[in-house]
Amino acid sequence: MRKTEVYQVRLDSQEKKQAFAVFKQLGITPAQAVRLFFKQVVLTRSIPFSIENQNIDLDQLLKLKKYQLSASPSVVESEEADHQDIFDELDAILNENSQS
C-alpha cells in the first residue's frame, strides 16, 4: 500500500459548503474530489481546467515573470521555482479580489 500524507487547506466557509453540496450530489467525498484533482494535475501536468477571472491576465503575468528573470541573468531559477512564484502571485491576486 502506498504511503499517504495529510494536507490541510484553508477555504472560504461559503465556498466550502457549496462545493461539499456538489460533491454530495456527485456521490463522492471531498477527499475523493481532491484526490481526483491531484491525479489530473499529475496526468496533464497542468491545472485540469481553465482559470477564468477577468482580473487576471495569465499571459501578462507570464510575460512579467519572464521579464523579471531576463532582467537578472546572473540569477538562475529552476523551472519549478519559477512556477511556484507564478502560483504565489496568482494566489495573492485571488486573495485581493476575494477581499474586495
UniProtKB/TrEMBL annotation:
Biological-process GO terms, alphabetical: regulation of DNA-templated transcription
List the Gene3D superfamilies: Met repressor-like
Alphabetical list of Pfam families matching this protein: RelB
Please name the InterPro entries in this protein's record: Arc_rbn_hlx_hlx (IPR013321), RelB/DinJ (IPR007337)
User: Know the name of this protein?
Assistant: RelB/DinJ family addiction module antitoxin
Record lineage: Bacteria, Pseudomonadati, Pseudomonadota, Gammaproteobacteria, Moraxellales
